[in-house]
Amino acid sequence: MDRLLTCLIAAGSVLLTVRGEVFKGDCNFEGPYTACGYSQGKDDDFEWEQANTMERPSPNPWMPTDSAFMMVNTSGRFSGQKAQLLMPQLKENDTHCLIFQYYVAGQREGANPGQLNVYVKENNSPLGIPVWNATGPAYPTWRQVELAVSTFWPNFYQIVFESVSTGQRGLLAIKDVTLQGHQCMSTPHFLHIKGVEVNARQTATFQCTVNGRPQDSHNLWLQGIGGRQAPMRETKPVNSRRYIATFDVENTTKGDSGRYRCIVHSDKGVGVSSYADLTVKQPPVPIAPPQLTAVGATYLWIQLNANSINGDGPIVEREVEYRTVAGSLIDNQPVDKTTHKIGHLDPDTEYEISVLLTRPLDGGTGAPGPPLTAKTKCADPMHGPRRLEVVDIKSKQITVRWEPFGYNVTRCHSYNLTVQYRYRAGGKEETREEVCYDTLSVAPQHTIRNLSPYTNVSVKLVLRNPEGIKQSTNVGVLTDEDVPGAVPLESIQGSTYEEKIALRWREPVQTYGIIKQYEISYKALSSFDTEFDLTNQSGKVFKFSNETSHMFVGLYPGSTYSFTIRASTVKGFGPPIITQFTTKISAPLMPGYDQETPLNQTDSTVTVLLKPAQSRGAPVSKYQVVVEEERPRRARRVAEILRCYPVPIHFQNATVLNSQYYFTAELPMGDIKTPVPFCIGDNRTYNGYWNAPLLPHKSYSIYYQAVSTANGETKIDCVRVATKAAIIVTQLTTPYIRIAPAAGDNQLTGTATRKPDAVEPEKQTDHTVKIAGVIAGVLLFVIIFLGVVLVMKKRKLAKKRKETMSSTRQEMTVMVNSMDKSYTEQGTNCDEAISFMDTHSHTLNGRTVSSPSSFTMKTNTLSTSVPTSYYPDPFVPTAILVPINDENHTMTSDTSSLVQSHSHSYKKKREVADVPPYQTGQLHPAIRVADLLQHITQMKCAEGYGFKEEYEINKSFFEGQSAPWDSAKKDENRMKNRYGNIIAYDHSRVRLQAIEGEQSSDYINANYVDGYHRPNHYIATQGPMQETVYDFWRMVWHENTATIVMVTNLVEVGRVKCCKYWPDDTEIYRDMKVTLIETQLLSEYVIRTFAVEKRGAHEIREIRQFHFTGWPDHGVPYHATGLLGFVRRVKSKTPANAGPMVVHCSAGAGRTGCFIVIDIMLDMAEREGVVDIYNCVRELRSRRVNMVQTEVRMTMSLLEPRERERERERERERERETTTRPCSKCLHSLPLYTIPNTPHARIHGLV
What we know:
The chain has 1247 residues and is an alpha+beta fold. It has 7 domains: 21-185, Sandwich (Jelly Rolls); 186-278, Sandwich (Immunoglobulin-like); 285-375, Immunoglobulin-like (Sandwich); 386-479, Sandwich (Immunoglobulin-like), CATH 2.60.40; 489-582, Immunoglobulins (Immunoglobulin-like, Sandwich); 600-631 and 645-724, Sandwich (Immunoglobulin-like); 962-1195, Protein-Tyrosine Phosphatase, Chain A. The chain is built from 20 helices and 70 strands. Strands 2, 3, 5, 8, 10, 11, 12, 13, 14, 15, 16, 17 and 18 form a 13-stranded mixed β-sheet that branches.
């Protein structure tokens, strides 16, 4: 047993010894190579072979002799085929020096059979790159190589020999591999090498510490396991035995990461260091662009969005990089928060913004992330355009120039430049604005065209961008003069006379400069008198600029002249304006009669010679023979005034009219072309005039007159051709009586009537005396009575004219006399009405009074054949109301005779019993509604004079100012009054809330008016003017008004009556906001509903405006019932708790008062059954001047029961129409203003 144990121990010792030698790495290849721990590569193309020529010599000449070695035979191998021989893995605490010999031999001298590579494989890393190789021509000799391996614990390494065939025949061999435990003698070793970490695109610097001293024969480089190599940059000695070699791996990328080692080649071999790791990190880059959160003119707010990245962390720094889109880099700004404000940017500029992220080490900043493109806002322009100047001035255009500017001024690439100019045209200021397109030139300019000549223009430039406006200074300029405009045609007025024309005109509206002179050319065009030679009737005159009138003399009567007027400035004459005027015709020139002796004379006839007259401006149209009775008391002055006889009076009417003359014949012009004899008293009829025989006992003057008529004018000239003295009755030679032509006898000129049979002279004389006595008495009474009445009336009228303007009074009178047909249709026959009212009486307040319709009509109207043109004064009454003071009173025979002779006289005498006297203007009792129709009819029967007598002429019914109006007359308030004579009384005026700092801001032309048992129920005011619109709405708000009644149109007969004080949508009047919310169009009026707000008041009020469109100024509505329906509609729509109702027309007097009277009287009629219009109007006029001017008659008619019933029927018809047709059709029936077809309208040329 002991013996066996000893043997086993010995065998194990041998095995351990053998095993230790294998793994040591030494091998002489005399024994099997595997015993040394060597092995073949697994993927070899061929194998290494072991040979020992000491034991078995080889006949191959290139085989080494007397050697044991490992070899590779390249014969028959392809190029690139390889074979590997692996040493065992070695592990030591220090460096090793491995020494081996190699042999390369070819078939022939200098051949290259292959390449021998030596690899040092550390741990289990890839094979890498050879640290040494033998290549080139083969020389059959053994060579020794030192391999200095520096590997440190716990690493291990393995040597690999590799043979690579070139395709040529030969062999490669190695032998005597010796591993020494010390450093190599000729080849230096390395100390431990450290790993390096860098960022991509940076340089990785490795430092290798080399034992020994630097030698020129040594070649050092850095070798990467992936094939990347780096040369030595520098060496630096550490001490006398060591130095440091530095290697740079430049521009590293992520792919350069891996293991690197230092390699040194010497003439004896190669040294290899251990591996060190190179770590290349990729700098971080954001995945998403930053997010824009706010934009300004010079800043941008962003959110970084840097949480998601591409690359390696950690992130130690964040930056924002921004640049203009044009590409110029602006700046990088470090960021320490997730949001960042980039400031100090340029306005209206587009930027690209990126985020940069940085990791540790140099080059750790990654590339900019995806960019955000953002644009800053525009900023206010720096200033307005500068150095604005006018460089060219013409009559209708100017050119301005300014200093050029760019982005530094506009601070925005999107801007516009306009020229704004102001001037006055037509009395109001106009503002215009034009775009300037010349903004980029060196000398920008703009031309303003279509200006008015000689006009002050204020010009400025306005620079605008989306963020603001800047303006230049204003430059004032006066455009050049030009030829003036035409003289206004409507301003040319001519006063025509028989042989002269006074011409007046105004300067042109568009003077376009300073008027220097006027040129007036005139020329005769035609004449009514064909005998005139007009060739010399022309000429031309010049007038200075301050002379706008001229009297043209030496003209022909009855001739039409053309006048051409034009004005001139320094630029020349303007366009001409042509007008025509016709001179008045002159009376014909009667022939001379030296002696007033007849050709022949009898008791009842006178024969005279009628000679033709000479025409003057118009041909003689007819001749007339007039017989005038000579009366002893006739004054010479009257005879001179009535020397000619314009009013034709028949012989039959002369006695009735108490006329001293009558027309005895009228002869056409053709009958007296030459002198002809004519017998006065031949008992014939000439053109409707009876040539009655003359009375022998009377004295007569025979007048012969010629009449010329043309162009609406009639001129008469006359001459006395004969006289006839009275003959004493006893001297009569032929007894006779007059027999007038039968009624309706219309004999032609020259036909004679039947001569009466002769009677006895005594009876004729007696009868004549009786007739003469009666006629004389009657005529004397009538003349005295009419004279007294006419004198009294004319005095009253003269006083009235002084108080008011005559034009207004004439219009009012004509209006009353020419009421529209809708009222006249309501009347009944005057005779029937009077007979009905004779016995009518009513009870008022418990006492019996007479109806105020009892009167007697007394006329002084001439025959119906008298032309109205002979009485131009419209105030001369045609009927007079005479009070009845005695119930048993009867008219005298004279008056009865006079009344009976009138064509409209009453057939019966009136009887009045137990009726107290009625005095016009003194007693005005209320009228029962049931009696109103008869009262109106009574007033109408005297052609409207009853209305005038009671409401206008009567002194007790005052008109004009009746109370102080000092506030309205103040200078600061005068412009607030539309008319100077219709202003507000102080005691009843509406006082507005005063505005601080504005003097007299409490005044408005408006007065309170009481309603029916409702104080201050109405406000009567004028139609607002442009200056008083705000005051009007202030009053509406302050008085809590809910209803506005407008009874005028904005424009009537071409004149502005009221300003449009309401909006079409919304309008702000200082602190008042008015909004139109509804418009209802009806056939005769419009209802508008407004929402009204006041700044500071927390409420919105609804206000209705009722606009009656069919009521002309100083006139009456065409359909009276429409107005009555309008009044009822206003009453029904007005809230009970609202403030005063505002009523206005144009002046706030006539139509305004009529509306208020109707409204009050309707209430009174419904409550009491009576109306008191007189006292109502009287009360209104005490509150406001001239209330109810001409509308009293219409007011009575509207209050009459039948009229109100008519209105109700029309209202029912309108309601039926409304249900069958759309309201939009009402628009077609809505007039801008209604002009009634009444006599008043025709007089004023409206229809």
